[in-house]
Amino acid sequence: MITRFTISKIIALVVGLLCLLIAFNYNTKNSFSINGSAYGTSWSVTSSEFIADHHHKNIIKIINNIDMVASNYKSDSEVSVINDNAVTTEFVISDHLYKILTIAKEVHNQSDGLYDITLGKLSSKMGFSPNFNDDLFHTSNNKFLLQNPNKLTKSTKDWFDLSSIAKGYSVQLIHEYLLENNLNNHLIDIGGEVIINGSIHGKPWKVGIQDPSSFIDKPIYVINNLDNKFLSIATSGEYRNFKILDDGKKITHTINPKTLSSISSKVSSVTVVHQSSATYADAYATAFNVMGETKAINFANENDIAVMLTFTNEEGTNLKFSKKWYDLKL
């Protein structure tokens, strides 16, 4: 005999199964996203899998940790303390700073000095970063020594400026954290430094590259990872980060280490796509921006790097690609 209690149990079971079915259908049609602000810009993480609160908190912790390592805007950050200390002082630095400086040194050497993270005083003098009322005289480029384990010695009073690599490093750390926690399908974006991994409900992720000639958000090119599970994407350009001086001269935030002045280039923006590291993508994008068209394409082809250069003139916008860009079927 079926009792009211049995019927209520069956109804509860059916309702429970329906709720599970609705939740399943919802999750397969929607993505989950968290976002915030850091490093003077915005960040977001999007996934087809649910991002639990503890993951959200841990991602914020990663972002804040790197801010306290690499920020020139915080007087108590690790790099600011080093910038403020005497020359020839040997520092024992964090694992994060050691890794950042190691990659920066590698790209500096590889690019024949056209990528340089020791131009912080010049950047401050031009008004693109804080100066803390200090002497802004720049003496020499890239004069620092790294030794294992985690030892750093500066040879000059020049300042580190890690703005061209720190966001990419943070993106890479978040990517690695998500993989460790089985959140394999994700898109991470910190101020335009991006990683796409896996898929969004079985379809490739898509990332639009901003048209430098447009004052609204308008993609000039869309990258997807249909043929590549993982891609890191970094874009560097002067089209929104410049100043006009009283005499009408335009200065940009990217400095040529050879001339110690703002770059002047026909290239409006540079987009690098890397197959393993957002840190390298971030650094290479700045290096290519300094190089200009011919050197950038030649360097990219010689070193098997995917790069897209954007040119804007009166006739419109044109694009130029390295060989690796075509190899990746971007």
UniProtKB/TrEMBL annotation:
Binding site for Mg(2+): S164, D282, T286
UniProt cross-references to SUPFAM superfamilies, sorted A to Z: ApbE-like
GO molecular function term, any single one: transferase activity
Stored InterPro entries: ApbE, ApbE-like_sf
Pfam families from the UniProt entry: ApbE
Catalysis: reaction(s): L-threonyl-[protein] + FAD = FMN-L-threonyl-[protein] + AMP + H(+)
This protein's record includes keyword Transferase: yes
Free-text cofactor note: Magnesium. Can also use manganese.
Keywords carried by this UniProt record: FAD, Flavoprotein, Magnesium, Metal-binding, Transferase
EC numbers: 2.7.1.180
Cofactor: Mg(2+); Mn(2+)
PANTHER family in the cross-refs: FAD:PROTEIN FMN TRANSFERASE, THIAMINE BIOSYNTHESIS LIPOPROTEIN APBE
Protein family (similarity comment): Belongs to the ApbE family.
Name by which UniProt lists this protein: FAD:protein FMN transferase
Originating species: SAR86 cluster bacterium
